[in-house]
Each structure stands twice: as structure tokens, then as C-alpha cells.
């Protein structure tokens, strides 16, 4: 700018507005997973947009989402990214909430949803020189199925089953997400089933260190079971530099939902939803891993009732809402 004094006045004005917005913002707590995952990138990036709309999000990363869901049901957390299958497991008293019974179902009544996030894609990875070219070849092998007590266990075992192996035909290995890739490189298991954004730089770098092969679910099992928070997704051959698949791979993509505690104010739920919906294109423009957001159905995979504030937004926007999500 040619006029430094004018630039300074504008900068000071902007800072004053920003400070005022921060002071007047309503603060909420939120938890999500790894910063580099789609489920981590979306709330991180949205935090600045939410702040502009008067919502100060205090975001905690690298959390176990099944535990975040419980914290939210108990009122100790305002919001979290939640796997739909974790919510249904809480309602039904299934693992990782086995033994809670009716108490789990009662706690689930304290959760409301805002929108879904098309998250990362499950990649079933083996070293190309391992001799494993299909799931049948992985019988008796060590397979990573996610962290202990995580909702991913159910999803990954379903993927392995769709590939042709039943539980008991392989050795299931559980470990924290953060250690999984290194453990795979160290030879602690033979098949790494983990989530990556399609075209992930991290997986590209892994494939450059040593050629990889991706395992596909069987074509007749291409459609994921209902209620798992998964949708079908094709991983093209040669997506990664060292990927040796000659044909496209049938995989499954995780769908997560942003949920809030039931007694969050209608206005806050409305602003969180409206701001996300209106800034999806900006998120996609800023990160190649978020290209799906603008065209994604914001209610795909959502299985918790919508918060009245979110429902208000969708009705104003003319977005059709399944009747099953309108029960409050």
C-alpha cells in the first residue's frame, strides 16, 4: 500500500474489531482426532470462521472420540467429532460401551448432531514384497485394527470381513493411531488398515520408502453395512508413487458427525452449522484433502437427532431432513 499511515489505521481498526469479537464471543469446548486427518483439519480450519461469527472454539486434538462422546453425554464437553457407529454402540450397549446397557442409551439422549463430515478413506496396506496380494493371503497374519477401545475396531473388522477373512482367521493387533505407521514399518504387523485422505502426502512418502499394495474388499461386498458410518469409495490404481495395484481398489470411507451436548443453546448450534455450511467452499479451496466438502450431503451418515438450532438452519436453507433426525 502506498500510504503507510492509512495502512496503519486500517490495521489498528481490524485489530480492534478482532479483539472486540474475541471478547464478545461465546466459548465452547470441542475435541477431535489427529491434526493431519480430515476430521482434525475441518474443525481446526473452521475455528477461524466460527470466531468471525462469534463462537470461540477451544479445540483439543489427538483425542479418543469414543471417550469424547462419553464426556459430552455427561456434560463435561460441549462438542466433539463423533463416529456414527460409536453413537449407535452407546445406544445399544455394544463395545466399547459393553456393559453399560440402559445407562448408555440414557446418556445418548444428551447428544445432538449438527452435520456430517466426509472423512478419510480406509486404506488396507501391505508391503508389495510381502507376498500378500489379497485378503486371502493375509490369513493367519497380524492385522492392525485400530486403537484399544476405539470405534474403528468395528469398522476395520468389517472391512477385513468384506475382504473375505472372519475374526479368528487372523491376529488382530490394537495400538494407538499415532504409532501405527511406524509399527508397520518396524514389522510389528503385516497389514496396516488406517485412514488417510485420498492422495495423502504421508502415505505417498511411505510408498516411496518401499513399494506398497492396497487390498480391496470383494466386489459383492462393496456396500458397507448400515450404521457403521461408512460409505463406498474407490481408490484408483497408482494413486501413490509406490502403489503397485494395476486395478482400482474398492475401499470404504469414514463419515463422521459433529455433535454437541443437548443443552447447548439453539443460537450456538445454529451459528456452528450455518458457518460451516457457508464456508465449505473456502475450506475446499484451501486444502486439497477437503475437496468433497462443498458437494457432500451434510446429513450423510448422521444418526443422532439434530439439535433444534441445526434443524432451524436446514429448514431455512431448504435442505431436506430425514424425519428420523427431527425427534428431540
UniProtKB/TrEMBL annotation:
Residues 1-25 form the signal peptide. Keywords: Signal. It comes from the Bacteria. InterPro entries: TRAP_TAXI. Coiled coil: none annotated. This is TRAP transporter solute receptor, TAXI family.
